[in-house]
Amino acid sequence: MSYLYVSDQSAVISYSANRFQVKYKDGMLKSIPAEMLEVIEVFGNVQITTQCLRECLQRGINIIYYSTKGAYFGRVISPGHVNVFRQRRQAELGKDEKFCLEFSKKIIDAKIHNQIVVLRRYARNSRENIDRPVAEMKYMQQKVVEMAKSVDQLMGYEGNAARIYFRTLGKLIDPEFAFTGRNRRPPLDPFNSMLSLGYSIILNEIYGKLEGKGLNPYFGMLHQDREKHPTLASDMMEEWRAVLIDTTVMGILNGHELSVDDFYSEENKLGVFLSDRAFKIYLKKLEEKFRSDNKYLSYVDYSVSFRKALDLQVNQLAKMMETGDLTLYKPVKIR
């Protein structure tokens, strides 16, 4: 199945003769067989015809809208996957504080583990000694598993680990893109700009997969309920942040595929953003990452793409919700 990303301003997406077509302002035309398309993601002033919208609704193809800078606006979805039983069960489990805490521990334990693995990977080609920050993160990981008595307390440990992680990661990147920590709304440096865009894309990909299994993306267990924010999608994203997004960004910047000239700031406004060229390179690299194979899932003995791994994890989450059996959900841990 294919994901269609369209970021060229004034492009038009249409449907004809069982194919979705993209016409660009220079006259170039690209098309995808309807049977191959799963999601359309559009950035900025991209036009979609009524026929295309209708066909997407009939086929259950999600259309996701972002600003030109990657801020999420909303989506067009078909209601065909609503599962009332699962959503009622999901809501019941969300009120079970012990269940939510134990699920959250599993997610954050995996997140910190994956962050440590990423730091070690990039430290191999650096003179930076990361022994101390890794030890500090492991201590926070231990507190998550053994000492956290509430989700709020757990999130405090996670926040400490995240600060150590990003501070250390900022020392392992090409000096041209060095940063001191995570920042957002707006991002203040190229690295954080790419992280914010990547996190938004993966959050909304998980959102669609949750809806596809009849779950409500807004009923979370780890993150607190927030107006208009899909907290369950945020919960599911935590184990994947470092695995999919952080590593892709590090690979692009340390591989010198972009330079500081590929980013811009607007006059009299805070924020650093990707140029059109950088935007397209990044989207292409992310899609390649999602399609690449891995063997990180503990419950399958064969390689799957990262996108398929996301599907399988959502399947396991749905089974866990239906049965209330926490052992059915095993967060991804990379090696």
From TrEMBL:
UniProt: Mn(2+) binding residues: E158, H223, E238
- What Enzyme Commission number(s) apply to this enzyme? 3.1.-.-
Top-level taxon of the source organism: Bacteria
- Which GO terms label this protein's molecular function in UniProt? DNA binding; endonuclease activity; hydrolase activity; metal ion binding
Q: Name one GO biological process term.
A: maintenance of CRISPR repeat elements
Q: Which cofactor does it need?
A: Mg(2+); Mn(2+)
The record's keywords, sorted A to Z, are: Antiviral defense, DNA-binding, Endonuclease, Hydrolase, Magnesium, Manganese, Metal-binding, Nuclease
Q: Which InterPro entries match?
A: Cas1, CRISPR-assoc_Cas1, CRISPR-assoc_Cas1_C, CRISPR-assoc_Cas1_N
Protein family: Belongs to the CRISPR-associated endonuclease Cas1 family.
Q: How does this polypeptide assemble, per the annotation?
A: Homodimer, forms a heterotetramer with a Cas2 homodimer.
Q: What does this protein do?
A: CRISPR (clustered regularly interspaced short palindromic repeat), is an adaptive immune system that provides protection against mobile genetic elements (viruses, transposable elements and conjugative plasmids). CRISPR clusters contain spacers, sequences complementary to antecedent mobile elements, and target invading nucleic acids. CRISPR clusters are transcribed and processed into CRISPR RNA (crRNA). Acts as a dsDNA endonuclease. Involved in the integration of spacer DNA into the CRISPR cassette.
* Record PANTHER family: CRISPR-ASSOCIATED ENDONUCLEASE CAS1 1 (PTHR34353)
Annotated protein name in UniProt? CRISPR-associated endonuclease Cas1
Its gene is cas1
